[in-house]
UniProtKB/TrEMBL annotation, chains A, B, C, D:
Residues 141-284 form the GFO/IDH/MocA-like oxidoreductase domain. It holds the Pfam family GFO_IDH_MocA_C3. It comes from the Bacteria. This is Oxidoreductase.
Amino acid sequence: MAQKKLNVALIGYKFMGKAHSQAWRTVGRFFDLDAEPVMKAVCGRDEAAVAEFARRWGWETSSTDWREVIGQKDVDVVDISTPGYTHDEIAIAAAEAGKHVFCEKPLCFTVAQAKAMLAAVRKAGVKHMVNFNYRRCPAVALAKKMIDSGAIGQIRHARFTYLQDWLVDPQFPMNWRMRAEAAGSGAHGDLGAHSIDLARYLVGEIGEVVGMQKTFVTERPAEGTSHGISATAGEGTEKVTVDDASVFLAKFTGGAIGTFEATRMAPGRKNFNRFELNGSKGTLVWCFEDLNYLDYYSTEDPGDRQGFRRIIATEGVHPYAGAWWPPGHMMGYDHTFSNAAADLVQCIANDKSCSPCFQDGAQCVAVLEAVDKSIDGGKWAQVEVIK
Amino acid sequence: MAQKKLNVALIGYKFMGKAHSQAWRTVGRFFDLDAEPVMKAVCGRDEAAVAEFARRWGWETSSTDWREVIGQKDVDVVDISTPGYTHDEIAIAAAEAGKHVFCEKPLCFTVAQAKAMLAAVRKAGVKHMVNFNYRRCPAVALAKKMIDSGAIGQIRHARFTYLQDWLVDPQFPMNWRMRAEAAGSGAHGDLGAHSIDLARYLVGEIGEVVGMQKTFVTERPAEGTSHGISATAGEGTEKVTVDDASVFLAKFTGGAIGTFEATRMAPGRKNFNRFELNGSKGTLVWCFEDLNYLDYYSTEDPGDRQGFRRIIATEGVHPYAGAWWPPGHMMGYDHTFSNAAADLVQCIANDKSCSPCFQDGAQCVAVLEAVDKSIDGGKWAQVEVIK
Amino acid sequence: MAQKKLNVALIGYKFMGKAHSQAWRTVGRFFDLDAEPVMKAVCGRDEAAVAEFARRWGWETSSTDWREVIGQKDVDVVDISTPGYTHDEIAIAAAEAGKHVFCEKPLCFTVAQAKAMLAAVRKAGVKHMVNFNYRRCPAVALAKKMIDSGAIGQIRHARFTYLQDWLVDPQFPMNWRMRAEAAGSGAHGDLGAHSIDLARYLVGEIGEVVGMQKTFVTERPAEGTSHGISATAGEGTEKVTVDDASVFLAKFTGGAIGTFEATRMAPGRKNFNRFELNGSKGTLVWCFEDLNYLDYYSTEDPGDRQGFRRIIATEGVHPYAGAWWPPGHMMGYDHTFSNAAADLVQCIANDKSCSPCFQDGAQCVAVLEAVDKSIDGGKWAQVEVIK
Amino acid sequence: MAQKKLNVALIGYKFMGKAHSQAWRTVGRFFDLDAEPVMKAVCGRDEAAVAEFARRWGWETSSTDWREVIGQKDVDVVDISTPGYTHDEIAIAAAEAGKHVFCEKPLCFTVAQAKAMLAAVRKAGVKHMVNFNYRRCPAVALAKKMIDSGAIGQIRHARFTYLQDWLVDPQFPMNWRMRAEAAGSGAHGDLGAHSIDLARYLVGEIGEVVGMQKTFVTERPAEGTSHGISATAGEGTEKVTVDDASVFLAKFTGGAIGTFEATRMAPGRKNFNRFELNGSKGTLVWCFEDLNYLDYYSTEDPGDRQGFRRIIATEGVHPYAGAWWPPGHMMGYDHTFSNAAADLVQCIANDKSCSPCFQDGAQCVAVLEAVDKSIDGGKWAQVEVIK
């Protein structure tokens, strides 16, 4: 185990806070890292709850004041697991305090925010990474490696769908994810952001988009308020102010064309984050609901033996997989977070750039924003290029 | 076997002519029909070839003059299996001669043509049907029946892809399907038309669309000429004048939103005609590459036992299947043509309207045309309503 | 179309008679044969029914006397589609009359019968073929070709299951397939025979077996009598005298080991005729419920790109497929019969041996009989070698 | 978090030691337990290596003397993760020291050993559990629940395969798992034991068996010695003294019939631990390579909507899943160990019997031994009933 320590402060302790905590506890057990992460501090609004969380997960201290935690000398990395509307303020403050920043996706809600965040981390010279965790599935990292090696030639079609079904029931009550103030958007920024990031990672930059969005259930039973943002409910119901579904067409600058679809209204699709890429020499298909598999078709196989090859990406030769278990011993959701943590630690310990960085996060926001613009205008919109 | 006879004349004897001939030979063997189809005449350009075709398939006579054949008194049904650019002239002539018309898809290339064809068959009072054969897969007909019974509630998402790969190789030579004069369009009218028809059948009318198209390989080795239309080749290559891929977003008038993608550039996808429909109570998924299966998810199954149900639609209780084999004895491509022929014969014999009729074919052309218009304008386009 | 004619007489006109008739009608349309089969005569017990069958399917004449039909000078091939207990008598008579014999599986019920049949066709010098139709699925024929080329190395494991579910309901009434006199055995000879034939075709000879059988539902509602064999029913029910399920282990003479399971009691399995073969260099998997696919794994693929390759065996390069449709246009159950008819016609026209021949059919019976013997003795039994 | 502590001592620190350590670190984070496990001590042969392991995984102390560790007053549970040949001695000593015992599978090699172990834990009155971890996949636990509720009626067919491929290459070198002294048997006890345990859990007791085994590669490159047992290698190779594959038929005492196949020689099968159970009312299928899914067919679904239902067992309503992530957030291999640890802790904290206990482990060994006996005798063998 590494002698060098890397002290981490986690801001936020709900779903993502739990996932990040499990990653920090686990990463050093499986990976041989050049620095050992230390779970220094966790921060949240509710003093008793965050203290109990710290005790359960092994954080050394807990706090309700994120500015104080960021100011601690013994904190090296600030890990932001809070809802998206808080990301820019915390990240900029962390950068200004000279801390490396690990930020949940989406980076933020607007290109303007994103530019400010990017400027802050660049000015501070700190490491910055956005947690698009699906890049860290072994099968996805393998896809990237294969594409870079020319396995499927030049990509022509990119087909992304991210389907869930937790809002199908109109009686499912409101929560912060359905309020524009807290969540920015609905399926668009929550799910679509993942697809856009994978598309940029695997295919390249998107130049133009045209889209549409829909809110199928426009009012839901009220939940009250959450995250400090008031609800607009009356008579026991509350108006949904984000999209249930977001769909768009894309033209990649490299010549490929793409379709993107994100929804929370697809019965039976639990976390159906899927892509299919058709290139001039082959095809790659991946879906999170079978996360350990990558389907690959090559036009270079012998004529009568061509077929989709279902690769179980759990062998020692596959990215990340060697750190875990013997072949065929499947990985789950949380492994992607540990893999991300491993990459982050190694980049910091060896003074290398992280990927995806805040520029990636900002470019993703630019695509999301262009889709919104295309909807407002009823026509194709250019994607701003974030330098 | 029925006493009543129905004399069929087939125009065209290539791929579709073969498929239709097999259907006419087969349909009366498996189905108990109210009229027995008789393979009266087949018509094509090449006298010797069409004569040999007639002999092989059991057509009583052959001819090179389609107007003459249509004029024969003993012909009841004209079956048009020629390329799309000839459909309108033949169909209108057939109607004027008082013959029932069975026409391959797409009905024609323009809304103007479609209206003329529709007017002709209506004026003549003959039966008219377009051969969107995928409606005749038992699993697709079952989907229709289930949707009508409310199995998936109100449809919110329609996701259609029709992917093939036969043009991936840039050395694959030109043929008539890549020339605008003969084929009208590429993947758009060839594959997209099927998806649009299934969408109208299963979901409802499309009100607005926005799309894009792409020709990835713009020149191909010349083939010469075919179907009487001159090639534009020079120096051994010929310019491709149709799309390789066509993609569009759609707003259905009933509130659903849709994505459509047709391409001949998806390695490994041979005839991947697939749809997924997400409703307020469930999901249905079908793909021709597994044509005998229908996947069904219901939110009304018990909470811990919900899952996609893979229905093998080959039981006696399923549409069409009872006419064929015992359960589990799979059906193939040609069965869809026999099923269509059975429906056509029964409609004519019992003086009922056929489905899909020329109005359906015309409305499909209207959607295709609206997509073209949206591409020209770079923005959403309204779909003309064909009455 | 070929000038030479081959006159066929079909004995039996139920499920198999229908399948064979469709094959004879169809084969010359798709295949370029060296002789054209002519549907000369069909024979069955019920005069009116068989006459109607002849009219519907296009047989020139019908008869109730199979000996007379066999005696006709203008019959070249006798096609036996009757229940198994009649095969030996008809086949021997046909051979003695100098006719080529095409016989449904299983060849017969006992090794003694099989030897007599084999002696008769050899003495007569006629062609003889058993209709193990699953050999004629393009994907299965491709598997054979790949095995012969060494694609999976030396086979070590052979795993055969043939699962159906039509007897799950104890209220499903008796029919001849559940009576030992008419059917010989239950799942064992009906389904197991197919698996054994595929095993011999793909893997090699079986030397020793040990098995077990079970009848889960021992009495069923009576149906009366059928096929001239009296029922043993009393009080409205009848005793089932065959197995519902038959399972055995096998040692192949070439060193592989095998498991075989046939049942009619597997809910959801409609015609689940599946094999998996593990060799020293790869694996092949096929199942009739996805009949157009062959799954192939090769240890010779690059280490990080190994996976089961799902070959759609419908391309022109695949066995049989070129005679039918373009790539991806799926085949069904009946195509296997047409493919078999094509092979038979070509063997007769060109004076070549058929495969599988009566020796193959006999050796299959020998394996079935050895399993019975192993059950009687409660221990491993040797399989008799039929020369 | 619970006030009550439960001190654990782990014996063994290789593959299983790592899996158990991850479980002990993780279980209290996700589950609300009635006692908090404390990682007190770890024990292994190599002093430096085990000390480093303790530091990495968070064990308080390390030792090379397992007897000493077992004797520690502050140890409540002894967790045995060593190779099978050591289990009996350690477990009996632990029981005699009054410790609860958690033992990796297989419990031991012989029925005689198993009886001694069972007697020891019973005499000591301690809790005892065998780590058949696949029972702890949510999908498998769901299968158990469904079977108990009658979802598939009376089970008739049990079809178990456990296929791996890590020994396909004859150049793969020897290790302790291929030596009879250390491993007892090969695929039989390693993989077959898992299948037998799942069969007993889901179907019931096995009364009679008949089997066969095979070693396809009889000599391998020598590795030297390991686990203190001398190798028998000469000339750089070593004789393999266990089976590569083990196959048997089974008669369950409840009337079902079963097939079992375990092998390390199936190319492409990485950890293909699969079962299919056919009952009088339905079917259940599970495979570890898709561990989060359970396939379910019910004959009680409406006739035209029957199909295999693919349940993603990751919802809050499914066993164990509620403790982890939101729906669709897949679980992997290590989660099964955490789930087992949770069950063990709750049983100890609440003074309840564990399952599977040593009696279960012993009965599993009795089945393994009966298969060996059937092979020796070439005939069916009775399974001894362990009381």
